[in-house]
Specification:
It is an enzyme of class 3 (hydrolase). α2 links the parallel β4 and β5. By secondary structure, the chain is of the alpha/beta class. About 35% of the residues lie in helices and about 25% in strands. Strands 1-4-5-3-2 form a 5-stranded mixed beta sheet, sandwiched between helices. The protein has one domain: Ribosomal Protein S5, domain 2, CATH 3.30.230. The longest helix is centred in the middle third of the chain and has 16 residues. It contains 3 helices and 5 strands, in the order βαβββαβα.
Length: about 110
C-alpha cells in the first residue's frame, strides 16, 4: 500500500511540469521528477475542467487516489497524476491498471 504526501504548492507543481518527464495512456498522464529525499513521495492528483463539472472531477480524483494507494511503497520521486477527458469512460480497474503500467514503464516501481 503506497503511502504518500500531498503535493499542494503551486511551485511544486510547476517544477514537476517544467523539469519532470511524462508518459501517458488514453486515460492518464503521469509526470514525475526524481528527488534525493528518501521519505514518502509527494503526489498531486489533477482533473481539469475538460473532464467534467466539479462533481465529476472530484469523483475521478478520488478514484485515482484510491488506485494509487493500492500499489507498493516507493521513494525518491514526486508525481503528478493527471486525468484525461477519456477517463470518464473508464472504471476503477482500468484506472488502477493504467497507473500501475505507467509507474512500471517509468521504472518507479
Amino acid at each position: 500500500m503506497a503511502n504518500f504526501l500531498p503535493l499542494k504548492k503551486d511551485g511544486e507543481f510547476r517544477k514537476i511540469y517544467k523539469l519532470g518527464k511524462s508518459k501517458a495512456t488514453k486515460n492518464i498522464v503521469v509526470y514525475y521528477l526524481k528527488t534525493d529525499k528518501t521519505s514518502f513521495p509527494k503526489v498531486g492528483f489533477v482533473a481539469s475542467k475538460k473532464v467534467g463539472k466539479a462533481v465529476t472531477r472530484n469523483k475521478y480524483r478520488r478514484i485515482m487516489k484510491e488506485a494509487f494507494k493500492s500499489i507498493p511503497d516507493f521513494t525518491g520521486y514526486n508525481l503528478i497524476i493527471l486525468a484525461r477527458p477519456k477517463i470518464v469512460e473508464s472504471d476503477y480497474n482500468a484506472i488502477h491498471k493504467d497507473i500501475n503500467f505507467l509507474l512500471k514503464r517509468h521504472k518507479i516501481l
